[in-house]
Amino acid sequence: MSRSVLSISWLNGQVKAVHMRGGQMAGTWVCPVVVESLDEVQSMIAAAVHDTGYNGREVVFVVENRNLLYHLQEAPMGRKSLIRGFLERRVAQSRFFDDEPAAFGVSHPILVKNSQRFLLTLLPRKWLLNLREGCAAEGLQLTGVFSPASVLARHLNQLPVDPGQQVMMTTDLGGTLCLMVGRKEKESQVLFARTVTVTQAGEEHLAQIGRAHV
What we know:
The protein is of the alpha+beta class. It is built from four helices and 13 strands.
């Protein structure tokens, strides 16, 4: 039986969904209105399921909004289980969203002298919980939440560049740009990511809305 996945991109309020079955596109949907509130998550998912004809169970999201942050965190060398605990403590101590706990994803480590660095992608935990609950209410399972930078990184090794070479990639998210610098390796390494918004004031200029530490 062919595996089915519903992929939903929620980028700065613009929502699109693609129903993939066995590697083939089986249906698409574009939300006709801007969606900005977490209260609209379940109805958004229900509409995507209905209009794409999706009858599977797995759902993945690509999310970009003003709450999404990138942060470069240095960590000591050590076992993965110990490093995960270290990163969890540092995220909790940093209080990226004031009193709101953060959910985070981790890139492959960047090795430096006597330590390593991880690019963290962070969202308020309530966003992850709402996406999960919205899927569960429709009888679905949330299997992944990705940032645009992580999606770009997945395509890095397909580029015709030499291993170890650093590459900058960018994608237009409709009013904002996602910038990602990575290195082509056996497992792609993300060195830097940032989201910027495009404004018009006589001439186009970039104003930072994401936060990154390098």
